[in-house]
Design brief:
Blueprint: E1 6-8, E2 19-21, E3 30-32, E4 41-44, E5 51-54, H1 70-78, E6 85-87
Antiparallel strand pairs: 1-6, 2-3, 4-5
Protein backbone atom coordinates (compact mmCIF):
# COMPACT_ATOMS: atom_id res chain seq x y z
CA UNK A 1 0.00 0.00 0.00
CA UNK A 2 1.32 3.43 -0.86
CA UNK A 3 1.92 5.98 1.88
CA UNK A 4 -1.08 8.26 2.38
CA UNK A 5 -3.68 5.68 1.27
CA UNK A 6 -6.11 4.10 3.66
CA UNK A 7 -8.72 1.39 3.64
CA UNK A 8 -12.19 1.86 5.09
CA UNK A 9 -14.84 -0.75 5.58
CA UNK A 10 -18.38 0.58 5.60
CA UNK A 11 -19.99 0.74 9.03
CA UNK A 12 -23.13 -0.92 7.74
CA UNK A 13 -21.08 -3.94 6.68
CA UNK A 14 -21.05 -6.55 9.38
CA UNK A 15 -17.84 -8.52 9.81
CA UNK A 16 -18.30 -12.22 9.21
CA UNK A 17 -16.18 -14.61 11.27
CA UNK A 18 -15.54 -18.04 9.79
CA UNK A 19 -14.02 -20.77 11.94
CA UNK A 20 -12.16 -23.69 10.39
CA UNK A 21 -11.58 -27.07 12.05
CA UNK A 22 -10.58 -30.60 11.14
CA UNK A 23 -12.49 -33.40 12.84
CA UNK A 24 -10.33 -36.21 14.18
CA UNK A 25 -9.82 -38.87 11.53
CA UNK A 26 -10.95 -36.53 8.72
CA UNK A 27 -8.43 -35.18 6.22
CA UNK A 28 -10.63 -32.22 5.22
CA UNK A 29 -11.09 -29.00 7.13
CA UNK A 30 -14.65 -27.78 7.57
CA UNK A 31 -16.03 -24.30 8.23
CA UNK A 32 -18.69 -22.90 10.51
CA UNK A 33 -20.04 -19.43 11.32
CA UNK A 34 -20.39 -20.16 15.03
CA UNK A 35 -17.33 -20.49 17.22
CA UNK A 36 -16.88 -24.17 18.07
CA UNK A 37 -16.98 -25.00 21.78
CA UNK A 38 -13.56 -24.84 23.49
CA UNK A 39 -13.93 -28.42 24.73
CA UNK A 40 -14.91 -29.65 21.25
CA UNK A 41 -18.21 -31.08 20.14
CA UNK A 42 -20.75 -31.15 17.32
CA UNK A 43 -20.81 -28.08 15.06
CA UNK A 44 -23.19 -27.21 12.21
CA UNK A 45 -21.01 -26.80 9.14
CA UNK A 46 -21.09 -23.96 6.65
CA UNK A 47 -21.48 -26.55 3.87
CA UNK A 48 -24.79 -27.63 5.47
CA UNK A 49 -23.85 -31.29 5.36
CA UNK A 50 -24.98 -32.03 8.91
CA UNK A 51 -22.90 -31.73 12.03
CA UNK A 52 -19.18 -32.41 12.27
CA UNK A 53 -17.25 -33.05 15.46
CA UNK A 54 -14.88 -30.16 16.21
CA UNK A 55 -11.82 -31.08 18.27
CA UNK A 56 -10.96 -29.20 21.49
CA UNK A 57 -9.51 -25.69 21.10
CA UNK A 58 -7.02 -25.32 18.30
CA UNK A 59 -6.12 -22.67 15.77
CA UNK A 60 -9.44 -21.92 14.04
CA UNK A 61 -7.95 -20.12 11.04
CA UNK A 62 -7.89 -21.57 7.55
CA UNK A 63 -4.95 -23.93 6.99
CA UNK A 64 -3.94 -23.31 3.38
CA UNK A 65 -2.01 -26.56 3.01
CA UNK A 66 -4.76 -28.89 4.26
CA UNK A 67 -7.53 -29.87 1.80
CA UNK A 68 -10.93 -28.26 2.28
CA UNK A 69 -14.35 -29.86 2.42
CA UNK A 70 -15.67 -28.87 -1.00
CA UNK A 71 -19.16 -28.01 0.32
CA UNK A 72 -17.80 -25.79 3.12
CA UNK A 73 -15.29 -24.03 0.88
CA UNK A 74 -17.87 -23.31 -1.83
CA UNK A 75 -20.23 -21.80 0.76
CA UNK A 76 -17.33 -19.76 2.16
CA UNK A 77 -16.75 -18.27 -1.29
CA UNK A 78 -20.47 -17.38 -1.55
CA UNK A 79 -20.54 -15.41 1.71
CA UNK A 80 -21.50 -11.77 1.33
CA UNK A 81 -18.33 -10.30 2.80
CA UNK A 82 -17.92 -6.55 2.94
CA UNK A 83 -15.42 -5.22 0.46
CA UNK A 84 -13.12 -2.39 1.52
CA UNK A 85 -13.42 0.94 -0.26
CA UNK A 86 -10.12 2.59 -1.14
CA UNK A 87 -9.54 6.30 -0.71
CA UNK A 88 -6.55 8.61 -1.02
Amino acid sequence: MMRGNSVEISEETERIAVYWFTPEGDRYQHATLREPPAEGGPVLTLGRHAYAEAPPVEDRRMNHIRPFCEDCFNEYLRLDRGQPSWKD
